[in-house]
Design brief:
Blueprint lengths: L6 H16 L2 H4 L3 E9 L12 H11 L3 E9 L9 H9 L2 E10 L2 E9 L3 E9 L13 E9 L5 E8 L5 H15 L8 E6 L7 H6 L4 E2 L19 E6 L4 E8 L11 E7 L3
Parallel strand pairs: 1-2, 7-8
Antiparallel strand pairs: 1-12, 2-4, 3-4, 5-6, 6-7, 8-10, 9-10, 11-12
Helix pairs in contact: 3-4
Protein backbone atom coordinates (compact mmCIF):
# COMPACT_ATOMS: atom_id res chain seq x y z
CA UNK A 1 0.00 0.00 0.00
CA UNK A 2 1.40 3.40 -0.98
CA UNK A 3 2.26 5.62 1.99
CA UNK A 4 0.76 9.13 1.68
CA UNK A 5 2.66 12.00 3.32
CA UNK A 6 0.44 14.94 4.27
CA UNK A 7 1.12 18.15 2.35
CA UNK A 8 2.06 20.15 5.46
CA UNK A 9 4.56 17.45 6.50
CA UNK A 10 6.17 17.46 3.05
CA UNK A 11 6.60 21.22 3.32
CA UNK A 12 8.11 20.91 6.81
CA UNK A 13 10.64 18.30 5.69
CA UNK A 14 11.54 20.41 2.66
CA UNK A 15 12.06 23.47 4.84
CA UNK A 16 14.35 21.53 7.21
CA UNK A 17 16.42 20.25 4.30
CA UNK A 18 16.83 23.75 2.88
CA UNK A 19 17.82 25.12 6.29
CA UNK A 20 20.48 22.44 6.64
CA UNK A 21 21.91 23.35 3.25
CA UNK A 22 21.94 27.03 4.14
CA UNK A 23 23.85 26.53 7.41
CA UNK A 24 27.29 28.14 7.29
CA UNK A 25 30.24 25.77 6.92
CA UNK A 26 31.46 26.45 10.44
CA UNK A 27 28.12 25.33 11.86
CA UNK A 28 28.10 22.11 9.86
CA UNK A 29 31.74 21.37 10.77
CA UNK A 30 31.55 22.37 14.41
CA UNK A 31 34.54 21.20 16.43
CA UNK A 32 33.89 18.80 19.28
CA UNK A 33 35.73 18.36 22.56
CA UNK A 34 37.09 15.13 23.97
CA UNK A 35 38.55 14.39 27.37
CA UNK A 36 41.70 12.26 27.42
CA UNK A 37 43.16 10.70 30.57
CA UNK A 38 46.57 9.06 31.00
CA UNK A 39 47.03 6.90 34.11
CA UNK A 40 49.71 4.49 35.28
CA UNK A 41 47.69 2.46 37.79
CA UNK A 42 50.63 0.56 39.39
CA UNK A 43 48.88 -2.79 38.74
CA UNK A 44 46.02 -1.74 40.99
CA UNK A 45 48.07 -1.17 44.12
CA UNK A 46 47.71 2.16 45.90
CA UNK A 47 50.25 4.02 47.99
CA UNK A 48 48.58 2.46 51.02
CA UNK A 49 49.55 -1.02 49.77
CA UNK A 50 45.94 -1.98 48.99
CA UNK A 51 44.87 -3.45 45.62
CA UNK A 52 41.61 -1.68 44.76
CA UNK A 53 40.30 -1.52 41.19
CA UNK A 54 37.00 0.04 42.29
CA UNK A 55 38.93 2.95 43.79
CA UNK A 56 40.81 3.46 40.53
CA UNK A 57 37.55 3.33 38.58
CA UNK A 58 36.15 6.05 40.84
CA UNK A 59 39.16 8.26 40.10
CA UNK A 60 38.69 7.69 36.36
CA UNK A 61 34.94 8.28 36.44
CA UNK A 62 35.33 11.60 38.27
CA UNK A 63 37.32 12.99 35.34
CA UNK A 64 34.55 12.00 32.87
CA UNK A 65 37.00 10.89 30.14
CA UNK A 66 36.18 9.85 26.58
CA UNK A 67 39.51 8.06 26.13
CA UNK A 68 41.88 6.61 28.74
CA UNK A 69 45.45 5.37 28.21
CA UNK A 70 46.42 2.99 31.02
CA UNK A 71 49.80 1.53 31.96
CA UNK A 72 50.89 -1.25 34.36
CA UNK A 73 47.79 -3.37 33.97
CA UNK A 74 47.58 -6.88 35.45
CA UNK A 75 45.47 -9.63 33.93
CA UNK A 76 45.17 -12.80 36.05
CA UNK A 77 48.45 -12.03 37.83
CA UNK A 78 49.04 -13.65 41.23
CA UNK A 79 50.14 -10.48 43.09
CA UNK A 80 46.86 -8.69 42.29
CA UNK A 81 44.55 -11.60 43.09
CA UNK A 82 44.21 -13.04 39.56
CA UNK A 83 41.79 -10.23 38.67
CA UNK A 84 41.28 -9.29 35.02
CA UNK A 85 41.85 -5.62 35.72
CA UNK A 86 41.02 -4.48 32.19
CA UNK A 87 37.60 -6.13 32.23
CA UNK A 88 36.90 -4.84 35.74
CA UNK A 89 37.71 -1.25 34.79
CA UNK A 90 35.61 -1.58 31.64
CA UNK A 91 32.65 -2.76 33.70
CA UNK A 92 33.04 -0.13 36.42
CA UNK A 93 33.48 2.76 33.96
CA UNK A 94 31.01 1.60 31.32
CA UNK A 95 33.65 1.97 28.61
CA UNK A 96 34.97 -0.26 25.83
CA UNK A 97 38.38 -1.74 26.64
CA UNK A 98 41.37 -3.29 24.88
CA UNK A 99 44.49 -4.79 26.46
CA UNK A 100 48.01 -4.80 25.02
CA UNK A 101 50.16 -7.31 26.93
CA UNK A 102 53.92 -6.81 27.04
CA UNK A 103 55.01 -9.79 29.15
CA UNK A 104 54.00 -12.88 31.11
CA UNK A 105 54.12 -12.35 34.86
CA UNK A 106 53.22 -14.60 37.82
CA UNK A 107 50.93 -16.80 35.78
CA UNK A 108 49.19 -13.90 34.01
CA UNK A 109 49.88 -10.96 31.72
CA UNK A 110 51.13 -7.43 32.28
CA UNK A 111 50.93 -4.45 29.93
CA UNK A 112 49.03 -1.39 28.68
CA UNK A 113 45.35 -0.78 27.93
CA UNK A 114 42.89 1.69 26.46
CA UNK A 115 39.36 2.57 27.56
CA UNK A 116 37.02 4.31 25.11
CA UNK A 117 33.50 5.72 25.11
CA UNK A 118 33.64 5.61 21.33
CA UNK A 119 33.13 2.37 19.34
CA UNK A 120 36.44 0.60 18.67
CA UNK A 121 37.34 0.01 15.02
CA UNK A 122 40.85 -1.45 15.12
CA UNK A 123 43.66 -2.46 17.50
CA UNK A 124 47.38 -2.86 16.78
CA UNK A 125 49.96 -3.96 19.37
CA UNK A 126 53.52 -3.06 18.43
CA UNK A 127 56.64 -4.17 20.38
CA UNK A 128 59.25 -1.52 21.18
CA UNK A 129 63.03 -1.89 21.52
CA UNK A 130 64.43 -2.97 24.87
CA UNK A 131 67.66 -4.35 26.28
CA UNK A 132 67.74 -7.98 27.35
CA UNK A 133 67.97 -8.37 31.14
CA UNK A 134 71.33 -9.23 32.68
CA UNK A 135 72.46 -10.37 36.11
CA UNK A 136 73.19 -6.73 36.97
CA UNK A 137 70.07 -5.09 35.60
CA UNK A 138 66.51 -6.31 35.01
CA UNK A 139 64.60 -4.87 32.05
CA UNK A 140 61.12 -5.59 30.74
CA UNK A 141 59.61 -5.85 27.26
CA UNK A 142 57.90 -2.67 26.11
CA UNK A 143 55.14 -2.07 23.55
CA UNK A 144 52.42 0.26 22.33
CA UNK A 145 48.74 -0.49 21.95
CA UNK A 146 47.18 1.69 19.25
CA UNK A 147 43.38 1.75 19.26
CA UNK A 148 41.43 3.39 16.44
CA UNK A 149 37.92 4.47 17.41
CA UNK A 150 34.94 6.00 15.67
CA UNK A 151 35.44 9.49 17.03
CA UNK A 152 33.33 12.66 16.92
CA UNK A 153 31.41 13.02 13.69
CA UNK A 154 31.94 9.33 12.96
CA UNK A 155 35.52 9.95 11.83
CA UNK A 156 38.49 7.76 12.86
CA UNK A 157 40.56 8.83 15.86
CA UNK A 158 43.54 6.93 17.24
CA UNK A 159 44.87 6.72 20.80
CA UNK A 160 48.15 5.04 21.72
CA UNK A 161 49.06 3.87 25.22
CA UNK A 162 52.69 3.09 26.03
CA UNK A 163 55.22 2.74 28.83
CA UNK A 164 58.95 3.35 28.28
CA UNK A 165 61.74 1.44 30.06
CA UNK A 166 62.34 2.68 33.59
CA UNK A 167 66.04 1.89 34.14
CA UNK A 168 67.78 2.04 30.74
CA UNK A 169 68.16 5.57 29.32
CA UNK A 170 69.33 4.22 25.95
CA UNK A 171 66.17 2.10 25.70
CA UNK A 172 63.94 5.13 26.26
CA UNK A 173 65.72 6.95 23.44
CA UNK A 174 65.28 3.95 21.13
CA UNK A 175 61.61 3.63 22.12
CA UNK A 176 60.91 7.31 21.39
CA UNK A 177 62.52 6.96 17.97
CA UNK A 178 60.50 3.80 17.30
CA UNK A 179 57.22 5.52 18.20
CA UNK A 180 58.04 8.37 15.84
CA UNK A 181 58.85 5.93 13.04
CA UNK A 182 55.72 3.85 13.62
CA UNK A 183 53.10 6.57 13.90
CA UNK A 184 54.27 9.71 12.10
CA UNK A 185 54.65 8.77 8.44
CA UNK A 186 53.89 11.55 5.98
CA UNK A 187 50.67 10.14 4.53
CA UNK A 188 49.05 9.41 7.88
CA UNK A 189 45.66 11.13 8.05
CA UNK A 190 44.10 9.81 11.27
CA UNK A 191 44.34 12.31 14.15
CA UNK A 192 46.37 10.53 16.82
CA UNK A 193 46.86 10.89 20.57
CA UNK A 194 49.93 9.39 22.26
CA UNK A 195 49.78 8.99 26.02
CA UNK A 196 51.89 7.16 28.53
CA UNK A 197 54.49 6.89 31.23
CA UNK A 198 57.68 7.86 29.38
CA UNK A 199 59.88 7.57 32.47
CA UNK A 200 61.57 10.79 31.34
CA UNK A 201 61.49 14.39 32.48
CA UNK A 202 60.29 17.10 30.04
CA UNK A 203 63.83 18.20 29.20
CA UNK A 204 65.15 14.62 28.73
CA UNK A 205 66.17 13.32 25.29
CA UNK A 206 63.28 10.83 24.81
CA UNK A 207 60.70 13.60 25.30
CA UNK A 208 62.64 15.96 23.05
CA UNK A 209 62.69 13.27 20.35
CA UNK A 210 58.91 12.89 20.60
CA UNK A 211 58.44 16.66 20.38
CA UNK A 212 59.99 16.63 16.91
CA UNK A 213 56.83 14.90 15.67
CA UNK A 214 54.21 15.45 18.39
CA UNK A 215 52.65 18.37 20.27
CA UNK A 216 52.71 18.13 24.05
CA UNK A 217 49.32 18.68 25.66
CA UNK A 218 50.79 18.79 29.16
CA UNK A 219 53.14 21.70 28.61
CA UNK A 220 53.58 22.99 32.15
CA UNK A 221 57.00 21.75 33.28
CA UNK A 222 56.15 22.67 36.85
CA UNK A 223 53.38 20.06 37.03
CA UNK A 224 54.82 16.82 38.46
CA UNK A 225 53.11 13.41 38.49
CA UNK A 226 55.36 11.20 40.66
CA UNK A 227 55.54 10.13 43.39
CA UNK A 228 51.81 10.48 43.89
CA UNK A 229 52.05 11.32 47.59
CA UNK A 230 54.38 14.29 47.04
CA UNK A 231 55.07 14.77 43.31
CA UNK A 232 58.48 16.10 42.31
CA UNK A 233 58.87 14.96 38.69
CA UNK A 234 56.68 14.74 35.60
CA UNK A 235 57.08 11.56 33.55
CA UNK A 236 53.46 11.06 32.37
CA UNK A 237 52.36 12.74 29.13
CA UNK A 238 49.68 13.27 26.52
CA UNK A 239 50.82 14.21 23.00
CA UNK A 240 48.89 14.66 19.76
CA UNK A 241 49.40 15.01 16.00
CA UNK A 242 48.90 16.54 13.55
CA UNK A 243 48.85 19.78 15.48
CA UNK A 244 46.28 21.39 13.17
CA UNK A 245 43.72 18.66 13.91
CA UNK A 246 43.54 19.55 17.61
CA UNK A 247 43.20 22.56 19.84
CA UNK A 248 44.25 22.25 23.47
CA UNK A 249 41.51 23.60 25.75
CA UNK A 250 42.78 22.50 29.14
CA UNK A 251 45.31 20.19 30.75
CA UNK A 252 46.01 19.30 34.35
CA UNK A 253 47.38 16.71 36.74
CA UNK A 254 44.64 15.24 38.94
CA UNK A 255 45.48 15.63 42.66
CA UNK A 256 45.02 11.95 43.58
CA UNK A 257 47.64 10.59 45.97
CA UNK A 258 46.40 7.17 47.13
CA UNK A 259 44.93 5.03 44.31
CA UNK A 260 48.28 4.63 42.47
CA UNK A 261 51.91 5.70 42.76
CA UNK A 262 51.35 8.02 39.76
CA UNK A 263 48.93 10.91 39.49
CA UNK A 264 46.65 10.83 36.42
CA UNK A 265 46.96 13.45 33.70
CA UNK A 266 43.97 14.96 31.88
CA UNK A 267 43.81 16.88 28.60
CA UNK A 268 40.70 18.41 27.04
CA UNK A 269 41.14 18.63 23.27
CA UNK A 270 38.98 20.14 20.59
CA UNK A 271 38.87 18.17 17.33
CA UNK A 272 37.82 19.74 14.08
CA UNK A 273 35.21 17.83 12.06
CA UNK A 274 36.59 19.21 8.81
Amino acid sequence: MKKIIPHFLRLTLLSLSICALLLPAHAQDKAQRIRVLCYNIHYGQGTDGVYDIARLAEVINKTQPDLVALQEMDVHVKRSGRVHQVQELAKLTGMHARFGPTQHYEGGLFGNAVLSRFPILNVVIQPLPYTESTAEKVTYPRATIAVTVEGPGGKPLRIISTHFQHNMPEDRIAEAKAVNALFTWKDQTIPTILAGDMNAKPEAEPVQILLKKWTNAIDDKATPTVPATAPKTRIDYIFYRPAKAFKLIESKVIPESIASDHRPVLAVLEISNK
